[in-house]
Design brief:
This protein has 444 residues and is an alpha/beta fold. It has 3 domains: 60 residues, Nucleic acid-binding proteins (OB fold (Dihydrolipoamide Acetyltransferase, E2P), Beta Barrel), CATH 2.40.50.140; 194 residues, Vaccinia Virus protein VP39 (Rossmann fold, 3-Layer(aba) Sandwich), CATH 3.40.50; 113 residues, Beta Barrel (OB fold (Dihydrolipoamide Acetyltransferase, E2P)), CATH 2.40.50.1070. The N and C termini lie far apart (64 Å). Helix 1 crosses helix 9. The chain has 9 helices and 21 strands. The longest helix is centred in the N-terminal third of the chain and has 20 residues.
Length: 444
């Protein structure tokens, strides 16, 4: 028997008047209509407005503003002409000070609601440049025959299609101002419809663009790319399969970007697809804050969990007696060891281990660590926290890119493992977006 296709529910066409009650965790305004919660893009608390529905489901609906009746004092005009279409930013309509206030409020709310923990002291927020800060990204590429051009950039807001944009104000200008030039260059290639993405990796000085290619580039293609790279001082690479296949164009030198932590006298070398923080200014401030919070001395044995290529491990080692870095990605661990060697840091050890699984049998895990730093992915660190009972650290610094999992893990540390939350706060790693980077300090 043939199945009937489910018909998408027809949305009301007429604008609906509401007053925004609060903000959701992603920065959208929250209102209620006929008992159902509605999340509205670019709406701020206490604003009265009219919106139209963009989606409606059983438990919630979504909408966008069509008429602003009252205006929040924190509302500003977006600086990017593509704001609202491109999904890369969600906070350009909010003044910079209020963005921080919103993010700190979200952190407080998540700690109280999810972790059942109150933040006793708020750290002064770490802030920096609000535009042109982003040095790592994965941009989409799509040749659209009907438009007669190649689109380069990010997806539309709540839509799988690439946005038609000409520039990006949050990307570093080396790339952010050259999206149209990239589009035109790719449009000249024979494989213009065989390039799905570009990996952007910038160091303090060098810029590398790795083009994922589904078919080999011709010699003519390579010459077009080479000329573009020379003109714009960009290292152009091709990526045929996974990250390990990223190679510079024939005859071109391999450029490995570098970023420095001047206060600790350390420089990191990384490969284009490796994870690094996107905002170097905030990263430098964040590393310094973590070191200060741990109150390190030569007697300390420190454990750095989810250490990546050693972004915290190596600077910690400039103050502590011994540091052990653990990361699940073996290539990152190998690169961390190489960065330790390049910086002449010998009081560190690096090991690969899946921190979502039991690590009790590893030799490094049998040590005692009096201080611990955690910097997990969005999933948090709940699986590894039970090991703190045997490591017995007296002080823990937790860096997070997801306030809800940080709040959950804070609840475990405080309510189950006997730690005390000393302070927490936000770090504006991603201005103009709803992304919340945060830090928390715990003591036994």
């Amino acid at each position: 028997m043939a199945r009937r296709r489910s018909r998408k529910k027809k949305l009301p066409e007429n604008p609906v008047k509401v007053t925004i009650e609060s903000l959701a965790h992603d920065g959208r305004g929250v209102a209620h209509v006929d008992g159902k919660v509605v999340f509205i893009d670019e709406a701020l608390p206490n604003e009265e407005l009219e919106f139209i529905y963009t989606d409606s489901r059983k438990d919630f609906a979504e909408g966008k503003v069509v008429n602003l009746l009252t205006r929040s004092e924190h509302r500003v005009e977006a600086e990017c002409p593509h704001y609202g279409v491109c999904g890369g930013c969600s906070f350009q309509h909010v003044d910079s000070a209020e963005q921080i206030h919103i993010k700190q409020g979200l952190l407080n709310e998540q700690f109280a609601r999810i972790g059942k923990v109150e933040i006793p002291q708020i750290w002064e927020p770490l802030t920096g440049e609000h535009w042109g800060y982003r040095r790592k990204a994965r941009m989409g590429v799509k040749y659209v025959e009907k438009k007669g051009r190649v689109l380069v950039g990010f997806r539309e807001r709540r839509n799988p299609f690439l946005a038609e944009i000409e520039s990006c104000k949050v990307m570093h200008p080396i790339v952010g101002t050259k999206l149209m030039a990239l589009s035109e260059m790719i449009g000249k290639l024979t494989i213009k419809d065989k390039i799905p993405q570009i990996e952007v990796a910038m160091g303090d000085e060098d810029c590398v663009l790795a083009f994922r290619v589904l078919e080999p580039a011709t010699d003519e293609d390579k010459e077009i790319m080479r000329e573009f790279g020379h003109q714009h001082n960009i290292s152009m690479c091709l990526q045929s399969k996974g990250p390990d296949t990223i190679k510079p164009l024939d005859g071109e030198p391999e450029i490995l970007p570098k970023y420095a932590l001047p206060e600790q006298g350390i420089e990191f070398v990384f490969k284009p697809a490796m994870f690094t923080q996107v905002n170097y200014e905030i990263n430098r401030k964040m590393v310094t804050r973590a070191i200060e919070a741990l109150e390190l001395c030569e007697d300390d044995n420190v454990l750095d969990l989810f250490c990546g290529l050693g972004n915290f491990t190596l600077p910690l080692a400039t103050k502590a007696g011994h540091v052990v870095g653990i990361e699940g990605d073996l290539p990152l661990i190998n690169h961390a060891k190489e960065n330790a060697r390049l910086n002449n840091i010998e009081n560190v050890e690096f090991y690969a281990a899946d921190l979502t699984k039991d690590v009790g049998d590893f030799a490094w895990s049998k040590q005692k660590f009096n201080k611990v730093l955690l910097d997990p992915s969005r999933a948090g660190a709940s699986e590894v926290l039970h090991n703190l009972k045997k490591w017995k650290p007296e002080r823990i610094v937790y860096i997070s890119c997801n306030p809800s999992t940080l709040a959950r893990d804070a609840g475990i540390l405080v309510n189950e493992l006997g730690y005390k939350l000393i302070k927490a706060g936000v770090m504006d790693m991603f201005p103009q977006t709803g992304h919340v980077e945060s830090i928390a300090l715990f003591e036994k």
